[in-house]
């Protein structure tokens, strides 16, 4: 995936990049440890600055430290931070705070059927671009009358134009033919109506790309029956959450798809479906593919394309081997077996010295 | 008999009060609470059979709608006449292109009179100003049809990627994201309100658990996004939990909507009964409809305390296939069977349902949306033949 919309980050000294690493909760820490192991093995010139966030504490210090570290380094790789339901509603989701503070306005998920993974649908290749900072995730709620809660969904012209511009630009750069806007403007006429209008305005500036729109309920139904009709999709925050999860389910599950959050100055990489995976944590059964592919996206962003394609090829070769599939793909492999296999692939097929990369 | 007529008369007293305002209007909350004390049936899922029955024949309001609605409802009428079903239809047309609300208010009055309606989807014209509300939405909120029930079952003759799906989806039908309350305080910034009330959430949760118990279901799953919308979906979830404690025989769990859609796409058999607010209900019901074969197969029902309106589950207008004789009539025919069940005409309902399912088994009669080349009229003719010969599959 090509994203020359964000500049390469400044934290590069002596040819080595510094990247913030946020382990998160659940399966995050173990999978990110595997990523570090793999990078060390491949001699990737990236140093990780680890910033831990304790999801149980109510103070904001951890979050502020993490945000400052990402501002300093420009790039981050993170696991999902758990949102504790027992804390009062004023305790906003940490992941959300990170996205809005750094203004990571575009969440890009590329769902592709991987060869070697058996799914009900073939040849799915959809890029989902989801507005990441506003919409239903504004966390603005109040209870004026007891028993009646009002939750605000905010759509602004500026952010809708920005995300539409990003989507069309990305479609053009990746040689895509069609952009579909997903909305519910028949019911939320002003809100989604504004979003749709902004998309139409931006579409006028890209005549070679076909633009159409579809209502979210029809979209999900079409996705389940004929997903091959979709190319690039752009949508507000909540629909993005649902549709990216549907597409992830179509290509094989949460363990396979990486996600990227881009802002003007920063980029944060994680798994597409943002699961904590508490129930499978520390059991060596989690699928590392999504996190490993996310680290490849990060390497692409750092312009270390040689390392990125080397690791990606090795991961795809490993995923093709059915006996190494983890439990979520229907196999019995363990996380460490998968990572070992990736390392072996790199050793046997990769370049001999780092000068060849 | 006296009890039922007393119960029938009470709602009429409170109807004008309950019909006013939007959810969240303190007057409505109070009125509902007041009626709650006197008439327990506010929270009851069971609906009293409608009053419009004279000489053994029921009168049902028919709203043709737009797109494929009129032609499919004509087929329904044809079929009912053929099967001698004791139902008369009062046809009320709603013109979707005019800005006045007279048509829809006529329709609402007709439904209030008859108690039951069968409708096609009314198109929402995008070129009208935002003050022109969706007619379907207006109908649902005015009649307080708080529960949308959709039963997704894999039909035996239809080939799908997943087999043996059997999920009941209960969706809150009147509030949530569909409140149509939006404003643009600052130019370029739109605020859209999503309303969740305790009263409506308790009501829908009660309906869901009651239905689950009646149908012998083991598990109810609440679908929400309370990690982000803590107050709103948190309130919904809390109401569901409170109601769940009164039904110890039914297992209750909850799932976040994005995880739910992903699970539905990979392993739909884990779901039994699902209850959720309005927007998630829309998305999840369309995903499930897609899983069992598409929008042409699944009927939907909207229930309120006093009224019931039946339509297709996914509420499509089908403009592009209108009047071409290629639309799938199954959803509408099954919706009419749900209506007959509601009118306590179970024999007719089972007869027609059996005939429709027998027709669905024949692959050569499948319409274009399920991969065949049959026409609408062929399907309806086949249903009639099955009824005539008495070959019914129950």
UniProtKB/TrEMBL annotation, chain A:
GO molecular function: ATP binding; magnesium ion binding; NAD binding; oxidoreductase activity, acting on the CH-OH group of donors, NAD or NADP as acceptor
GO cellular component term, pick one: mitochondrion
Keywords noted in UniProt: ATP-binding, Magnesium, Manganese, Metal-binding, Mitochondrion, Nucleotide-binding, Transit peptide, Tricarboxylic acid cycle
Domain of life: Eukaryota
Location (main, coarse): mitochondrion
Pfam families, sorted: Iso_dh
Entry-linked SUPFAM superfamilies: Isocitrate/Isopropylmalate dehydrogenase-like
NCBIfam families in the record: mito_nad_idh
Protein name: Isocitrate dehydrogenase [NAD] subunit, mitochondrial
Gene of this entry: IDH3G
TrEMBL record, chain B:
Domain Isopropylmalate dehydrogenase-like, residue spans: 59-383
Molecular function terms, GO-annotated: ATP binding; magnesium ion binding; NAD binding; oxidoreductase activity, acting on the CH-OH group of donors, NAD or NADP as acceptor
InterPro entries (UniProt xref): IsoCit/isopropylmalate_DH_CS, Isocitrate_DH_NAD, IsoPropMal-DH-like_dom
One Pfam family this sequence matches: Iso_dh
Cofactor: Mg(2+); Mn(2+)
Superkingdom classification of source: Eukaryota
Cellular component GO terms held in the UniProt record: mitochondrion
Subcellular location as annotated: Mitochondrion
Complex formation: Heterooligomer of subunits alpha (IDH3A), beta (IDH3B), and gamma (IDH3G) in the apparent ratio of 2:1:1. The heterodimer containing one IDH3A and one IDH3B subunit and the heterodimer containing one IDH3A and one IDH3G subunit assemble into a heterotetramer (which contains two subunits of IDH3A, one of IDH3B and one of IDH3G) and further into the heterooctamer.
Family note: Belongs to the isocitrate and isopropylmalate dehydrogenases family.
The name this protein goes by in its record: Isocitrate dehydrogenase [NAD] subunit, mitochondrial
Organism of derivation: Denticeps clupeoides
Upper classification of the organism: Eukaryota, Metazoa, Chordata, Craniata, Vertebrata
């Amino acid at each position: 995936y090509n994203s020359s919309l964000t500049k390469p980050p400044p934290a590069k000294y002596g040819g080595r990049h510094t990247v913030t690493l946020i382990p998160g909760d659940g399966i995050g820490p173990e999978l990110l440890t595997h990523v570090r192991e793999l990078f060390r093995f491949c001699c990737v010139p990236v140093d990780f600055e680890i910033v831990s966030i304790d999801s149980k504490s109510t103070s904001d210090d951890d979050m502020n430290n993490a945000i400052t570290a990402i501002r300093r380094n420009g790039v981050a790789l993170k696991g999902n931070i758990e949102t504790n339901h027992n804390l009062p509603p004023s305790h906003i989701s940490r992941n959300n705070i990170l996205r809005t503070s750094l203004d990571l306005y575009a969440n890009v998920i590329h769902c592709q059927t991987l060869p070697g993974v058996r799914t009900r649908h073939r040849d799915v290749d959809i890029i989902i671009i989801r507005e990441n900072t506003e919409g239903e995730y504004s966390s603005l709620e109040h209870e004026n009358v007891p028993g009646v809660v009002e939750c605000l969904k905010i759509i602004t012209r500026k952010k809708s134009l920005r995300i539409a511009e990003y989507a069309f630009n990305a479609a053009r750069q990746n040689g895509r033919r069609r952009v579909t806007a997903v909305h519910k403007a028949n019911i939320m006429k002003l809100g989604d109506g504004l979003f749709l209008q902004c998309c139409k305005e931006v579409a006028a500036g890209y005549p070679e790309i076909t633009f159409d729109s579809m209502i979210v309920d029809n979209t999900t139904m079409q996705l389940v029956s004929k997903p091959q009709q979709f190319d690039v999709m752009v949508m507000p925050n909540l629909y993005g959450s649902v549709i990216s999860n549907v597409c992830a389910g179509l290509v094989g599950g949460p363990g396979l798809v990486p996600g990227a959050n881009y802002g003007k100055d920063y980029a944060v990489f994680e798994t597409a479906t943002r699961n904590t995976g508490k129930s499978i944590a520390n059991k060596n059964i989690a699928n590392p593919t999504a996190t490993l592919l996310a680290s490849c996206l990060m390497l692409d962003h750092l312009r270390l394309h040689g390392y990125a394609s080397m690791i990606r090829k090795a991961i795809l070769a490993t995923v093709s081997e059915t006996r190494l599939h983890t439990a979520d793909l229907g196999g019995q492999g363990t996380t460490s077996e998968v990572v070992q296999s990736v390392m072996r692939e790199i050793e046997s097929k990769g370049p001999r010295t780092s000068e060849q990369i | 008999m006296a009890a039922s007529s007393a119960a029938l008369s009470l709602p009429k007293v409170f109807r004008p009060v309950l019909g006013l305002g939007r959810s969240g209007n303190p007057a409505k909350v109070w009125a509902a609470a007041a009626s709650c004390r006197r008439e327990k049936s506010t929270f009851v899922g069971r609906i009293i059979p409608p009053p419009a029955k004279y000489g053994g024949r029921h009168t049902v309001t028919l709203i043709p709608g737009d797109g494929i609605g009129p032609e499919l409802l004509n087929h329904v009428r044809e079929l009912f006449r053929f099967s001698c079903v004791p139902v008369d239809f009062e046809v009320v047309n709603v013109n979707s292109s005019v800005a006045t609300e007279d048509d829809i208010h006529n329709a609402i009055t007709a439904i209030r009179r008859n108690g039951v309606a069968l409708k096609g989807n009314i198109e929402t014209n995008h070129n009208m100003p935002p003050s022109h509300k969706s007619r379907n939405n207006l109908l649902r909120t005015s009649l307080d049809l708080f529960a949308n029930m959709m039963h997704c079952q894999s039909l035996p003759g239809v080939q799908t990627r997943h087999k043996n799906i059997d999920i009941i989806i209960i969706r809150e039908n009147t509030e949530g994201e569909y409140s149509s309350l939006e404003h643009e305080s600052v130019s370029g910034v739109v605020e859209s309100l999503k309303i969740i009330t305790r009263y409506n959430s308790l009501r829908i949760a009660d309906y869901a658990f009651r239905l689950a118990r009646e149908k012998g279901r083991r598990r109810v799953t609440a679908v929400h996004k309370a990690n982000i919308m803590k107050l709103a979906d948190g309130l919904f979830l809390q109401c569901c939990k409170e109601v769940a404690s009164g039904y110890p025989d039914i297992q209750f769990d909850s799932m976040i909507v994005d995880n739910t859609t992903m699970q539905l796409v990979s392993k739909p058999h884990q779901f039994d009964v699902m209850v959720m607010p309005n927007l998630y209900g829309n998305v999840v019901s369309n995903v499930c409809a897609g899983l069992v074969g598409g929008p042409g197969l699944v009927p939907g029902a909207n229930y309120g305390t006093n009224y019931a309106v039946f339509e297709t589950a996914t509420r499509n207008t089908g403009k592009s296939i209108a009047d071409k004789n290629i639309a799938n009539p199954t959803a509408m025919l099954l919706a009419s069977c749900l209506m007959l069940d509601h009118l306590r005409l179970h024999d007719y309902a089972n007869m027609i349902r059996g005939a429709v399912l027998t027709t669905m088994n024949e692959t050569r009669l499948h319409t274009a949306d399920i991969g065949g080349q049959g026409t609408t009229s062929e399907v309806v003719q086949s249903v009639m033949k099955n009824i005539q010969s008495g070959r019914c599959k129950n």
